[in-house]
Amino acid sequence: MCRGPPRPLRQPSSPTSWRACTVADWLDGVLRYLRSWIGDPSGTADPRFSPHLVPVFSSPEFVGPDARRDGQIRYVGPSIVDRPAGSDFPWD
Fold this sequence. Notes:
Strand content: 5-15%
Number of helices: 2
Structural class: alpha+beta
Largest sheet: 2 strands, parallel
Shape: flat
Number of strands: 2
Mean pLDDT: 75
Helix content: 10-25%
Number of domains: 2
Distance between the termini: 53 Å
Order of helices and strands: HEHE
């Protein structure tokens, strides 16, 4: 098991204070940190999964004719933002 919050949330004090983690170890650390941060360190909820709703950042048309359309799935469109303004790079 990885110790403490994952590296993106806290830098180790020395290169030997952490070990290489599997993705599952890293995710467990993130979830433990978040649960502790919200005041429920003994909780087991996983915010990636909900028995109530699954938001899909796509559209049924893009997913295709086999796209599920049951009551728990909501197609909310792509999660994109406007393109940034052009740069001042001297292309000539």
